[in-house]
Here is the input.
Amino acid sequence: MDFAKLANPQILRIKPYVPGRLIEEDILKLASNENLLGPPESVVRALCEHATMVNYYPDSDCQEVRQALADHWGITPEEIIMGNGAVEHIYNVCTAFISPGEKVMFPWPSFAIFHIAATIQDAHLEMVPLTPDFQFDFDLLIQRYREFSPKLIFLNNPNNPTGSWFSEQELVRLLEAVDPEHTLIFLDEAYVQFVDAADFPDSLKLRREFPNLVILRTFAKIYGLAGLRIGALIGPPQFIDLINRVRDPFNVNRLAQVALLAALKDEAYYQKSRELVIRDRNYLMQKFDERGIRYVPTQTNFLFFDSGVDGEELFRRMMEEEKITMRPMTGYGLPSWFRASVPSDLAQCDRFLEALERQRTRLIEEGLAVG
Ligand SMILES: Cc1ncc(COP(=O)(O)O)c(C=O)c1O
Here is the structure.
């Protein structure tokens, strides 16, 4: 039989999300924007203490976690809903708000899950290109908003995969242009804790003025909890109530809740995570400048760059000969571009830089330079 004939037709248009490789010995894994410090020790201890409780279902409403986050952010628990990773909320907002044919707009390249979640709902997609140097184009976004009148706008700041970001002034321009009665602005801030740009938006402040602004946060990155899957969505209580109706019960597992409660108390780990990423991304950008490698200045824990050579061959050699994985950007139509995590370790930065230089030089000598 042919299951494709039975499936909803829009599902056939989805290209499955491609995850990075799983961890293997000796591999420097720079493909998935993970925290390469390892999890906080305080979290590992808390997990061991609670391991004997996994025969019980978790708190479906994540009450303790939501209270801790509410205190942390200076808001109320009714303004927070927890998810099995931040991505769950991207699907849930589409399920709750988007019917077939309704319009969803987002800049592109951006987070692949925006595209997948909106397509599952058979939404009408408007993908607004970034500028040729991969910056946000708010003139174009506002123009397309006016022409297209979307019900939902996804924004990712700073942006995966490019690392570029937009300022508070730019965001306010869009928020002021948008009709809050008809359009929801979903701001994914998965990498916000790594930002040191002074003009970056204070979204928690802006949401008080713009109730159609909802904010996504993950604990996978700076808190080092990617493998446990926990993320938060922040919005007005009525919005949160609607998302609550479509989520899975018990969506956030018991150990993820325990881990987050421990991680939120571990200020030392948080600061170390942040400082090492900022130090290492500045180091990598400086070295790329010295070597003339084109990249996009980043505010995240990853760097988006043009290898200037045949990407497929570079990817293969980095993997097989150097034991380093990076994320190819072929899916975005950028075959010589890659995204690589910032290692949080200068020796690993050098390992990456030396391997990249060795393989690029060889490929250029073999006539495989592009662009
Ligand atoms: C922009 C963006 N949003 C959300 C996520 C997902 O976070 P989580 O691992 O909590 O689902 C990621 C992870 O890579 C991301 O890059």
In short: The chain has two domains: 3-38+268-365, 41-266.
